[in-house]
Design brief:
- The protein has 140 residues and is mainly alpha-helical.
- It folds into 2 domains: 51 residues, no CATH class; 59 residues.
- The chain contains 6 helices and no strands.
- The radius of gyration is 25 Å and the shape is elongated.
- It starts with 8 loop residues before the first helix and ends in a 9-residue tail after the last helix.
- Keywords: DNA-binding.
- One of its GO terms (molecular function) is DNA binding.
- InterPro entries: Homeodomain-like_sf, HTH_CenpB_DNA-bd_dom.
- This is HTH CENPB-type domain-containing protein.
C-alpha cells in the first residue's frame, strides 16, 4: 500500500539532519548532514529547513504557522471592509471615487488605533484597488 501522505520537503530535510546529528553523537563517525546539504538533497529552501530544524530542537515539532510571512497589511480585515463600504456609499450617493478621500479614510482608521499608526504609503491606493477587484470601475 502506498503512503498518500507527502511530507513537506523542508520538514523531511530537518528530520534527516536531526537523525544525522543523533547518529554522529552516538558513533562519532563521519560528519553530520548540514542544512545546505539537506536542503539540496530534499529540494527545499535553506531558510525553511533551518526554521523547522530550530523548532524541532526547541519544541519537538516542525514550525507550521498559519500566520503569513512577510510585511503586515496596512489595514486589517475590518478596516478594509469599512473602506470598501465607504467607497460603495460614495458611489451610491453620486460622488466620484476620489483617491484623496479614500486615503484620508484609511489614514483616519489607522490613526484611531492604539498606538496610532502612520499614514498609508504612496502606492497603497493602487494596491488596494488591485486587491479588491469588485471596486473596479465598470466600462459601459
Amino acid at each position: 500500500m502506498t503512503d498518500l501522505y507527502q511530507p513537506n520537503p523542508a520538514v523531511a530535510a530537518a528530520r534527516a539532519i536531526l537523525l544525522s546529528q543523533r547518529r554522529h553523537r552516538n558513533t562519532k563517525e563521519g560528519k553530520p548532514l548540514t542544512v545546505r546539504e539537506a536542503a539540496d538533497r530534499f529540494s527545499a529552501s535553506k531558510s525553511a529547513v533551518g526554521r523547522h530544524l530550530k523548532s524541532m530542537k526547541l519544541y519537538g515539532k516542525p514550525d507550521f504557522s498559519d500566520n503569513s510571512r512577510g510585511r503586515p497589511r496596512n489595514l486589517d480585515e475590518a478596516e478594509e471592509r469599512a473602506v470598501i463600504a465607504y467607497i460603495v456609499w460614495l458611489e451610491r450617493a453620486g460622488f466620484p471615487r476620489n483617491q484623496l478621500l479614500i486615503e484620508e479614510a484609511a489614514n483616519d482608521l489607522r490613526a484611531s488605533r492604539t498606538p496610532p499608526a502612520g499614514p498609508v504609503g504612496d502606492r497603497w491606493y493602487r494596491r488596494f484597488l488591485r486587491d479588491n477587484p469588485q471596486l473596479q470601475k465598470k466600462n459601459c
